[in-house]
């Protein structure tokens, strides 16, 4: 009898072209099968992470809802609140100004929250970052061991964790090799603006005593800097040694090939997705996880050895 009823129900579903009402199912199961992702802007770095994350989540029936907050502090909190009220099953957040106190005002139910790229201050949650300090140290150390003593750096905003860690690597390398830092060689820029990278590189080039090498710590800033170097007809590495960040396509177009720090963007997305699924199954055995992934330093022909 039960089998006969099942067959009749399946035939009725086909005949009526029945579709699952996800909202109704969500109310019944307390799951929406969605994961919210909050990012500062839509750009290559975050897009690659999201694509990797989504590929794994789709295999398990989860969809991804992405919001960007355009590097706006007020919008960041509003978009976080928006995603939470959409009753997503988990949240992946790239914070800029978001703090634990902001989250506690909004979140009233137990859902997994994972911070990527940057930790959330004063909030206990899973966090996935890159070894920003270590890889920046290696990049600057390479320049120092090749004889450079006048090394410029184009950093991100001073309030952003990744920018602070990359600058810390630059400073520590100078300190450990007893190389004095010219504060005029440190330029703070906008992570998401090629124009800003262009402007800061121009400022370094126009100094009375310009650097012999520059480390650029972000994709958009690297692209803007290369445009500035082309406009000034600066010969790499004869007139300036350069190490960029994440710009693998640009690296192939620039002659000679550009030395780069490459972040493991696909791995970040993969690790985040696997961790989300683990938490959604109720497994908190390693909570809160702080996972640091390794970026690579690829040395090409854009740096040269000079005599001290």
TrEMBL record:
Pfam families: Peripla_BP_1. The keyword Ribonucleoprotein does not apply. The keyword DNA repair does not apply. Gene3D superfamilies: 3.40.50.2300. Keywords: DNA-binding, Repressor, Transcription, Transcription regulation. InterPro entries: Peripla_BP/Lac1_sug-bd_dom, Peripla_BP_I. Residues 34-280 form the Periplasmic binding protein/LacI sugar binding domain. This is LacI family transcriptional regulator. It comes from Caldicellulosiruptor diazotrophicus. The lineage of its organism: Bacteria, Bacillati, Bacillota, Bacillota incertae sedis, Caldicellulosiruptorales.
């Amino acid at each position: 009898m039960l089998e006969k009823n099942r067959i009749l129900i399946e035939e009725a579903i086909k005949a009526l072209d029945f579709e699952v009402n996800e909202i109704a199912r969500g109310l019944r199961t307390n799951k929406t099968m969605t994961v919210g992702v909050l990012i500062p802007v839509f750009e290559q770095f975050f897009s690659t992470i999201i694509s990797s994350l989504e590929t794994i989540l789709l295999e398990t029936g989860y969809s991804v809802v992405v919001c960007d907050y355009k590097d706006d502090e007020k919008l960041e909190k509003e978009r976080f609140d928006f995603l939470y009220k959409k009753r997503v099953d988990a949240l992946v957040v790239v914070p800029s100004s978001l703090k634990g106190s902001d989250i506690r005002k909004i979140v009233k139910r137990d859902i997994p929250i994972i911070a990527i790229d940057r930790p959330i201050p004063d909030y206990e949650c899973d966090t996935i970052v890159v070894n920003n300090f270590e890889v920046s140290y290696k990049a600057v150390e390479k320049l120092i061991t090749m004889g450079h003593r006048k090394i410029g750096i184009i950093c991100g905003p001073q309030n952003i964790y990744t920018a602070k860690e990359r600058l810390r690597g630059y400073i520590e390398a100078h300190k450990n090799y007893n190389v004095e830092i010219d504060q005029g060689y440190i330029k703070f820029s906008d992570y998401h603006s090629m124009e800003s990278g262009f402007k800061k590189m121009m400022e370094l080039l126009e100094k009375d005593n310009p650097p012999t090498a520059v480390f650029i710590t972000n994709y958009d800033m690297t692209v803007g800097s290369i445009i500035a170097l082309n406009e000034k007809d600066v010969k790499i590495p004869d007139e300036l040694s350069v190490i960029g960040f994440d710009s693998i396509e640009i690296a192939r177009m620039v002659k000679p090939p550009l030395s780069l720090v490459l972040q493991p963007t696909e791995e970040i997305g993969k690790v985040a997705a696997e961790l989300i699924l683990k938490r959604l199954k109720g497994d908190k055995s390693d909570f809160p996880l702080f996972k640091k992934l390794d970026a690579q330093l690829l040395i090409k022909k854009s740096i040269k050895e000079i005599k001290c």
